[in-house]
Recover the amino acids of this structure.
């Protein structure tokens, strides 16, 4: 399935929110869900454990309507952050057009961020995709926490953002940075319309 | 009239919001396929909501896709002032024709036709003419057609015959986006609160809103100080716009909940539209490029017209590949059959198969170039004072083909090794990478030329030989037996010499006595002419020795000496003698000896006859009866027909 289907006049973008457990991936989708008019959003599928931890993945389809004659759809996914759900993460990554890496800004979660980033790289490679070739943005979530508990966007950029791609400070609970992040990744993905590349 | 389209009024500079999304989508569709859908398109809405922007964006988009398209923008206000003038000047038909001929007619401010019967009738006439031709009409008005008072019913029906869509008052978040874009476009910097103040200043008219932004920028520029929120609020108060910013004097910041999804959607729409529209520009550019290079572009033109094109990138790539293929085929045709060059097939990417078939046909009709014989190697030639000059020249030619001695002419009597030298040089030249060598007799060369003349394929003949890096022609004295060679040969020689292709010719007749056309002679004698002398005794001894050694395990020096002393005008005749001796010895089961040779070649018994009866001069026997005669030229008895041939032709 290509990003743009000229025959059926459809554009479908799959964006995956990736990151360590409890970094706020599901919160991103929930906030977006809350701001999208009902007519534009599909049912958000979220399979969570008792502790509100994502068991499999979240899925939020967005119908953006007809743009330039093309029915345009966005499919937002999250992956389960816990280490032991790697098979699910790999599965969700399949066919992704862009990745939002949601990092937890808390200093104590620094290693988890790194580990998750490495895991993302490995899982992409398993699909034959070089992380450098796929649209990717970083979101540094929980920037609303006290400054002494978190690392600032610049520090996190230095530590995680080796490719110097776009990054966004965010606070998903209040919604700050959520749509900015979505717009950032969408622009990157849509600008590759012609190339039509995605995770195999 | 194209200049009436403001450069800034494009789809890319338009803020798309739910309030204008349908109108924008319809406008884009119309711009993509003018005259095919939504014809006419009627857009209405309050002043300053972007209707004129949309009209002009359509015009720009159409022209981006097809710069040759005729786009006319006309506001009814301009029409109302120009039309009576044209009519009074008797130019009404020309004026009307100007708009009737437009392929896309953009009519603005239709509501100004209210109660103006004469103008309405004229517009109706223009509309009917344009629509009849399936040309596109887009109209803008501040109200729907049926809401325009005093509008002719027929005209109202025409206006509503296609799609009627409205643009509504923008939501605050849309206005904020408009303000942000304007500020960004102007390169200005304002405090975020000022942006919100501007967006909430109660200006539903976007034109006035933009003017407000410009005014703020101007104030900031004049004072050379960043505008403060308080100062901005003061300015709005002065303009009577403070009311909408909140309770008077309360200083309360305007609050509205931003439509984040709406902004996101607007961004996505702009990006997608930009990406998708880009292919039309690419196709249009490709059409211009290939048309400029003389290729037919029907396929691409059809692509632009297509409502639902397949993947345009794939089609563009395929078209480009076909053009490259045609270029390759034409280039090949240049070599194979230059008559084909310029064929329209090589300019039509939809006819690649036919063009390939044409070249294949020509390719099949082409003969391979005549190659030198492998049996003649330059290294096998025995060096002697008589052929030293020729051999040295040959090796220099091989070292520096086309530059050292070009052409090289080798002159010698028959059988002295000219052909051996010629083929030896040709074989060496052929070893060079990318070498294309033609080595043939003058008779074959002329036969080829005459056949080409008869078949009217002279250019193909020239092309065949023009592509060589070396042309070696044996026995050019035979050209004197043929009708005038004509300018074709001179032309070919010039082309080869200019291309530094090596020319080598041989002749039995000295060059000065050839009697060929002066033009040909000038070119053939322009390099080096060397002579090969008839073989001297040393060469003859070496030749005999080599031939005997090839057959016999032990070579008798006396036999070698005898045979080398036999009268032979050429190496070839000497070779004939030796072969004859060896063949006869083999047939008779004898060892070739001097006595056997003497009997065979001189017809004498093994015991030598009394020599005093005849005068012998170096193998030539002088009969007693007088007269000089070579005994070998006399027929005694021939063992077989093969020997006879060898004797006469060797």
């Amino acid at each position: 399935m290509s990003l743009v289907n000229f025959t059926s006049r459809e554009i479908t973008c799959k964006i995956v929110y990736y990151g360590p457990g409890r970094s706020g991936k599901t919160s991103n989708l929930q906030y977006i869900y809350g701001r999208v008019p009902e007519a534009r959003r599909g049912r958000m599928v979220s399979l969570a454990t008792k502790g509100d931890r994502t068991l499999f993945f979240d899925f939020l389809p967005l119908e953006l309507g007809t743009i330039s004659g093309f029915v345009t759809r966005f499919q937002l996914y999250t992956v389960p952050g816990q280490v032991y759900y790697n098979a699910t993460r790999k599965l969700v990554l399949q066919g992704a057009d862009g990745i939002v890496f949601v990092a937890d800004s808390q200093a104590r979660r620094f290693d988890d961020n790194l580990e998750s980033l490495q895991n993302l790289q490995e899982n992409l490679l398993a699909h034959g995709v070089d992380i450098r070739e796929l649209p990717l943005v970083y979101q540094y979530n929980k920037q609303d926490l006290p400054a002494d508990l978190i690392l600032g966007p610049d520090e996190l950029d230095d530590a995680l953002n080796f490719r110097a791609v776009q990054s966004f400070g965010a606070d998903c609970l209040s919604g700050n940075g959520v749509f900015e992040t979505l717009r950032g990744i969408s622009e990157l993905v849509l600008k590759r319309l012609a190339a039509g590349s995605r995770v195999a | 009239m194209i200049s009436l389209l403001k450069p800034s009024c494009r789809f890319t500079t338009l803020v798309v919001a739910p309030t204008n999304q349908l109108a924008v989508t319809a406008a884009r569709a119309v711009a993509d396929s003018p005259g095919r859908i939504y014809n006419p398109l009627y857009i209405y809405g309050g002043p300053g909501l972007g209707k004129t922007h949309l009209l002009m964006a359509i015009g720009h988009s159409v022209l981006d896709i097809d710069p040759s398209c005729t786009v006319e923008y006309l506001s009814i206000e301009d029409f109302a002032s120009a039309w009576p003038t044209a009519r009074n000047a008797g130019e009404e038909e020309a004026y009307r024709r100007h708009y009737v001929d437009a392929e896309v007619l953009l009519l603005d401010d239709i509501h100004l036709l209210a109660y103006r019967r004469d103008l309405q009738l004229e517009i109706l006439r223009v509309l009917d003419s344009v629509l009849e031709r399936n040309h596109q009409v887009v109209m803008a008005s501040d109200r729907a057609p049926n809401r325009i008072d005093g509008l002719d019913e027929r005209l109202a029906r025409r206006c509503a015959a296609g799609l009627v869509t409205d643009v509504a008052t923008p939501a605050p978040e849309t206005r904020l986006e408009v303000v942000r874009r304007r500020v960004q476009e102007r390169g200005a910097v304002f405090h975020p609160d000022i942006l919100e103040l501007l967006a909430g200043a109660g200006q539903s008219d976007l034109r006035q809103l933009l003017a407000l932004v410009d005014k703020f920028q101007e104030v900031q520029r004049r004072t050379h100080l960043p505008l403060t929120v308080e100062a901005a609020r003061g300015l709005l108060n002065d303009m009577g716009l403070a009311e909408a910013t909140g309770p008077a004097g309360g200083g309360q910041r305007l609050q509205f909940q931003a439509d984040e999804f709406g902004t996101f959607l607007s961004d996505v729409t702009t990006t997608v539209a930009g990406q998708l529209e880009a292919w039309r520009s690419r196709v249009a550019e490709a059409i211009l490029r290939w048309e400029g290079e003389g290729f037919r572009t029907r396929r691409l033109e059809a692509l632009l017209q297509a409502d639902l094109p397949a993947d345009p990138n794939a089609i563009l790539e395929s078209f480009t590949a076909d053009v490259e293929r045609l270029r390759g085929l034409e280039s090949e045709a240049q070599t194979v059959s230059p008559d084909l060059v310029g064929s329209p097939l090589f300019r039509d990417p939809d006819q690649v198969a036919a063009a390939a078939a044409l070249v294949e046909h020509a390719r099949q009709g082409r003969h391979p170039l005549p190659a030198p014989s492998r049996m003649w190697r330059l290294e096998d030639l025995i060096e002697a004072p008589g052929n030293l000059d020729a051999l040295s020249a040959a090796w220099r030619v091989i070292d520096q083909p086309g530059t050292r001695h070009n052409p090289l002419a080798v002159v010698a009597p028959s059988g002295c090794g000219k052909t051996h030298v010629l083929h030896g040089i040709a074989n060496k030249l052929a070893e060079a990478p990318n070498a294309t060598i033609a080595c043939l007799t003058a008779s074959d060369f002329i036969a080829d030329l005459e056949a080409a003349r008869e078949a009217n394929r002279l250019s193909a003949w020239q092309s065949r030989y023009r592509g060589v890096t070396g042309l070696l022609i044996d026995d050019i004295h035979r050209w004197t037996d043929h009708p005038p060679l004509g300018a074709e040969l001179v032309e070919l020689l010039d082309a080869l010499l200019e291309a530094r292709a090596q020319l080598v010719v041989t002749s039995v007749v000295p060059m000065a006595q050839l009697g060929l056309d002066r033009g040909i002679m000038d070119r053939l004698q322009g390099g080096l002419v060397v002579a090969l002398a008839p073989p001297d005794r040393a060469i003859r001894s070496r030749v005999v020795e080599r031939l005997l050694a090839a057959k016999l395990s032990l070579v008798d020096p006396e036999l070698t000496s005898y045979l080398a002393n036999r009268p032979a005008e050429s190496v070839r005749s000497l070779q004939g003698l030796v072969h004859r001796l060896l063949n006869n010895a083999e047939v008779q089961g004898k060892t070739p000896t001097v006595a056997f040779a003497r009997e065979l070649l001189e017809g004498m018994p093994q015991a030598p006859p009394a020599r005093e009866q005849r005068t012998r001069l170096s193998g030539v026997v002088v009969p007693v009866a007088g007269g000089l005669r070579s005994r070998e030229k006399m027929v005694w008895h021939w063992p077989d027909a093969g020997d006879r041939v060898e004797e006469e032709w060797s």
Notes: Chain B has a mean pLDDT of 79.
